[in-house]
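Quick start: read one record
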Amino acid sequence: MFPIQFPVNRSVLRIPFGLVLLVSGLGVASCGAEVTPPARVSAEVRVALVAVSLAPTQVAVGQTSQATASVKDANGNPVDGRVVTWASSEPGIATVSSSGQVVAAAVGRATVTATVEGVNGSTELTVFLVPVATVDVSIADSTVAVGATRQALATPRDALGNPLSDWTVTWSSSDTAIAVVGPAGLVRGIGVGLAVISATVDTVSDRFNVLVIPGLTASINPTSNFDTASQGSAPRAASAQLTIAGPGSADAPWSATKLKSWTTLAAAGGTGSATLNYQRTVGSLVPGFYVDTITVTVAGATGSPVRLIDTLQVLAAADTTAGVGEAPSPTGRNPKLIWTKKRQFVWNRMRAENHVWWQLIKSNAERTGTAAERSNDIGQWATLAYQITGDPSYGRRAWARVQTRLPITYGGNQIREQFGETVMLYDWLYPVLTAAERAQYVGELNKWADFALGLGGASNGIRLGDSDFTVGAYFGLAFMDLAIGAANPRGVSFLAAVDKQGTPVGGLTATGANRTSARNAVADFVRLAEGGEWIESTQYNPGTAVLLLMGADGVRTATGVDHFPEVTRLGQQMAATYTYRISPDLNQY
């Protein structure tokens, strides 16, 4: 018998010919020969399915899970010994090693995938934060001075007391008028008193009390100096008083700097209150104006840095007309608001020199009441010309224009923009008005005051949430007391009044930076504007900031006392802010 060969799965199957005949049913006997069985077939098994499992499927940040891949063929039989490649869809949330160990890195969901010979299988892992059981807050010193800061810390912990690092802490203060706290836990003292600082993580909180005590304050007097010197003369000496008050003020360090080369400081630093001596070297400076800014910084003090604007006018050797003296009012009466003898002296000189500013004032005053008058002229240009010259024709022109604007015609905006200024015009025009005209003027101004206070149903009173209205109404009421006072037939003190809503005007002295009175609200708005940027309307209406500065100056000239030191500081900051915007390197000086 001879074998027949058939190719089957790359192996050779050897079958005796007799077996072929027997199988085919031909009845041929094998002649008793031994039949050789077929050899075993060897075939490559292909991967058809990869199933991935995780234990566990949900883990906390920082914990691990083990991934396992189950590899099977098309018949569902396990296939062993194959190489598994692991991958994570979100490595920022979970990473997976070559052995399938998964490490949770951040909250979220990630898909873990196993790949075997091109076949993928995957499953999802959920990563969560370990629940917060407690929050521990701490602060090195719970007493903080106004203007100073303290760093508070908050540590969330799990049920076993282990610290947790992946939760967000939310900080809050029970009274932001006393203390505020930033998103990183930095506590700052705002006003004297007690506040509760809280740290909340998820729904778990802890808190502590912080006591705010009076802090260091810094001020300089005067805030501006003006001097004159002839060209080539000896250096001109000047000084200012630096006052540091509050706990530890005697040891509080300060440093002083100046901008210009012609200024020499006697001391560049020291501790505690001091007299700041300096001099200006005139030398070869040509005739003109020279302005320098002396800045004193007091570490940790409210109001710091303080600044002194020093102006030196260098004259030609033969010029003896300069210098700031004093002069009486040419109208025969010294006004109470804004006006001073020194300002009158300067105006007199401006007029004598036909200065461009006097030309502007005179031109605008002569246009008052005509078709060519300046926009928003309510008589202020002619009033100023009357005060400068004493010429009653300007005063009568001003009164003719003012009386047309006295009736309240557009309410709140009229109070905000013109109340204080209209009272000031009464103060300046007083000598040129008849008794009947003064009575008419005061009677209309009393209606303005009623509107500001909400009396008689004209309005709801002083809107403490509106800085524009509050500033205009407050200083208008203050000017009424200071300029008219006992001459007012109403016989009332508007500074001691209470508006329709029960809000007091609050007098001239603030008791805090809050919204409990109109005076305190002014202090609060100034606090929000610290740094030199008015918090509501400077960008579209600088008039509000002007009214604030005018109001504080009017009170100072009428009383001889600076009742608004916060406004004085802000005025310096605003001047520096806008000067920097115009010329960051101050080259205009």
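Confidence is low (pLDDT under 50) at residues 1-35.
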